[in-house]
């Protein structure tokens, strides 16, 4: 015989309504009780009837997850974490890719409106006005984008950019370049602002090169401009751009890190496999996926949402083989004993 909701309630020692809320509105159930009910349901093999529950609650128990480019290795760990976290809460996730096109992004949000309870927007390219308008159609949480009034999960890329510039300056690099990301990227703006501040504080010159495609090809195309800028230290928008830059510089006879040090952002798997292994800013993608799901479920589970939530996750600098001391001619002169600045 099929396991019923009454069986789960009896085995859990709770009322039937508590089991129902555990699956339909988990945020309303005490965490300890919720976890006990879910464990018993899993042990008994109980599966709630989605169709019946949807008629009762008016919810689909589906979420949408929209990313800028599913081929970018940055996104799969986030997608996998979000899907697993949602599935543990009895939600399914539909994933869609915009190919960096804001028009496609808007079409996908509108298409999801009646199919999901809420949407996770990862690194959206839409403008502020469009996002503010679309939020009235479906609840959503932003990932790596800040907009007043909207809940968001941010990976502190500004801190990461400062750490990267300070690392390069600490190695003696005084002529730096920043390979920015695609036009309209909120992340690219944050990296640029933080890198400029850190360079100024370190007494280094920063040349901004871009916008660039957030791909390996984008880095290869930018290599000649980096060489013309005579930069000895480079911070790239992401790891793909950094890896492409290393390849492009090699074709020009410029060695990394002997002639030019390169830092990426993301810490994708290729950063560890590339030669030289890439120094990069590690982004907490798994934590971001899980946190964004929790935030979205809390949002769709209430009729009167409070102030928009904001979570900022810490980034770290991972030093590998693509950065080294600046060429001798680039390093600041050491003061002789007794000299003063």
From TrEMBL:
Keywords: DNA-binding, Transcription, Transcription regulation. InterPro entries: HTH_LacI, LacI/GalR-like_sensor, Lambda_DNA-bd_dom_sf, Peripla_BP_I. SUPFAM superfamilies: lambda repressor-like DNA-binding domains, Periplasmic binding protein-like I. Gene3D superfamilies: 3.40.50.2300, lambda repressor-like DNA-binding domains. Residues 3-57 form the HTH lacI-type domain. GO terms for molecular function: DNA binding. It holds the Pfam family LacI. This is LacI family DNA-binding transcriptional regulator. It comes from Actinomadura keratinilytica. The lineage of its organism: Bacteria, Bacillati, Actinomycetota, Actinomycetes, Streptosporangiales.
